[in-house]
Amino acid sequence: MLNKLNEKVWNFFSSVDLAVALFIIISSGAAIGTIIPQSIEPEPIIKFFSKFMSISSAHKVYEIISLFDLNNVYHSWWFIFLLFMFALNLIVCSIDRLPSLLKSFKTSPKPYPMQILENMPVKKTLKINDDKILDKIKEIFQNRGFSTHIFETQEGLQIHAKKWTKTRLAVYLTHLSILIILAGALIGSFFGFRGSMNIVEGTGLNFVISDDGKAIPLDFEVRCEKFEAEYYENSSMPKAYRSYIKIIENGKPVMENIVIEVNQPFTYKGITFYQASYGFQPTEHAEFRFTYFDKTGKEFNINAHFEEKFKIPQTSVTASVTDFSPALGVDEEGKLFNMTSDMINPAVLVTFEENGKKTQQWILKRIPETWQTPYGTLRFNELWGAQFTGLQVRKDPGVPLIYIGSILMCIGLFICLFLRPVNYFVVISKNQINFYCPTSKGIVERQIDEIIKKLKGEQL
């Protein structure tokens, strides 16, 4: 009774039908994870479904989604269980079939019955009378990398030529690669994390906010020394934006002058930082930076905080920044307004004072014509410490395994597709040679035709 139960369980897990069913279910689960926003917070999901139904219905849908962890598919218990079942199915299938395959490599070859040969899809006949035909056929096959076995049968001599027989093991290499990829994915799921950091210029953080809202501490500090964005001329579209980062450990910088750009991430201690976003977030430490040019062209660098007075070099004029706009625009009536919070067209309103007389002028960073003032050229360079860089952060210790598994899978699939076992059967009877092959492919027939031409002494 117990043996029958064990046999049923073994047959269940070694079933190809189970593998197909699991693959379909896992693929469907992954598709659900692509369609439904993957977020622990309810707002993004409710907002998504409210496009198609009422708010109250969207809330009910969220409750169902949350119940089955459909908003966190790839970390849900049922998805991990399916992956475990798929891995177990692969292992049992391999164990069930591999011994018989290995045994076939050690088994001495035997002649095939003519009934089987005659039913093969490829059959070609050559009538020839040559006493040395056997040696010629053996030489042709051996020159092409085939091993040959010769048997004496009632119908005559039977030659079994075969090549790449051990490439049948490639399917198990593919199975192994899938298991390695699954192991890498599970390791990344349990021991890795994904999150973000918003770091204001001149400040640093030693923690990451994960996708589920938890603070993950780091044993080092990531400091943003500077953030800059470049825009296309006469456009609000960014051409490039980058962060200049410093890594600090135990109060001392260990890496400096690190540049993180889009498609140019930075990795430290297995944690990768990606440039993802940026924004405007002024602080009391934000500093306006100018360059003043006197009449001789000499440059003077000026740094000042908001409403802090500074002196115009070589003059009796004082100035201060009394207003700021990250994106100054002009409406149809000629009135100034702020277009957005992004630093698209930063501008400062500078108040000049000389002998008690005050004048004001807007100076725009991207428009040199506005740099000219009655007191000389005053170029607005930047507002430092008012922008933050948004970094996506990811730690995935399973990535090396996924790379290894992917390479092994490519090798296994290449062997399975392009280095399949090839078998030819040749029966030499009186004044006649019959060629057989169990594989019906154009290339197989062409190879047999080439062998026949060579036996006839024709040029290929």
From TrEMBL:
UniProt-listed InterPro entries: Cyt_c_bgen_Ccs1/CcsB/ResB, ResB-like_domain
Membrane topology: Multi-pass membrane protein
A GO CC term attached to the entry: membrane
Gene Ontology biological process: cytochrome complex assembly
Keyword Nucleotide-binding belongs to the record: no
Annotated TM spans: 12-36, 76-95, 169-193, 401-419
Domain of life: Bacteria
Main localization category: membrane
Swiss-Prot/TrEMBL keywords: Cytochrome c-type biogenesis, Membrane, Transmembrane, Transmembrane helix
Domain ResB-like: 17-360, 386-429
Pfam family, one: ResB
Places the protein is found: Membrane
Name used for this protein in its record: Cytochrome c biogenesis protein
Organism: Thermodesulfovibrio aggregans
Lineage: Bacteria, Pseudomonadati, Nitrospirota, Thermodesulfovibrionia, Thermodesulfovibrionales
